[in-house]
Design a protein that fits this description.
single chain; mainly alpha; three-stranded mixed β-sheet; 5 helices; binds zinc ion
Length: 251
């Protein structure tokens, strides 16, 4: 690509880098907009997965309890059958000793039946608790799923809405980069990377640096307004521009 040699004035250099900053800041704000949603979606996905696992575990417990209840019901039936059998045998005993022995067996099986009833009652109480817990988790899961669907929708919408804008801004940023003085651009990149908010060029606001808010002495402010030198903040190193120049550059 052919480059046209041009002796940019400091003012032009400042305006160019300021313009680049404003475009890049717009890109940053689009990223921030999306920034929280992917995290929220991820958290909700984790919640949904966790609840699903919890429900599966409770379901397994419910199955185990149901199997236990069925086994105890069978045991009760067995005891009942034994009682019937012993009672029948009592009708044909030869002596009272045999009769007594069978009576003891029958008494044992009655105890066994009562124990089965108690086991079943206890298990049913536990079953109710588990069913309640399952229902609670299912309701929670449904609510989380709804929230997740909503957030996914929001994220999808923002991505589709910002995609075009982001692409356009990226192109403009690339074009703007070409207009910035090479050394100034290097400084811009270095400063921008060192601050979380990505601000490398800031205006003077209320006698202070627009980046770190430290006061700028009047003499320095005058120099900034003259636009004859590139002046950086002595506290944070950001490139300073006067408020009028800042207002005149719009992107
Ligand atoms: Zn500063």
């Amino acid at each position: 690509m052919a480059t046209v040699a041009k002796d940019f004035s400091i003012e032009e250099k400042l305006a160019a880098v300021l313009s680049l900053q404003k475009i890049d800041s717009k890109i940053d704000s689009l990223q921030t907009l999306k920034g929280e949603l992917p995290m929220e979606v991820k958290d909700l996905e984790d919640d949904v997965e966790g609840l699903q696992t919890r429900i599966n575990n409770v379901e397994q417990e419910i199955n185990t309890i149901n199997e236990y209840i069925a086994a105890r019901r069978e045991a009760k039936k067995d005891a009942e059958a034994l009682i019937a059998k012993y009672e029948k045998q009592q009708e044909n005993v030869k002596n009272s000793r045999e009769f007594e022995a069978l009576s003891k067996e029958i008494e044992m099986q009655h105890l066994e039946m009562r124990l089965c009833d108690k086991n079943i009652r206890d298990a049913q109480t536990e079953l109710q608790e588990r069913e309640h817990l399952k229902l609670q988790n299912e309701n929670l899961l449904e609510a989380k799923r709804e929230m997740l669907a909503q957030k996914q929708q929001e994220l999808k919408k923002i991505i589709s809405e910002t995609e075009a804008e982001e692409k356009e801004l990226e192109e403009r940023s690339n074009h703007a980069k070409d207009t910035v003085d090479k050394r100034l651009f290097e400084a811009y990149e270095r400063i921008r990377k060192s601050y979380k908010n990505g601000l490398a060029v800031v205006p003077v606001q209320r006698d202070s640096c627009g980046g770190c808010f430290n006061t700028i002495p009047p003499q320095r402010q005058t120099e900034i307004m003259q636009r004859k030198k590139i002046i950086v903040c002595e506290h944070c190193g950001r490139i300073l521009v006067d408020a009028d120049l800042n207002d005149s550059v719009t992107v």
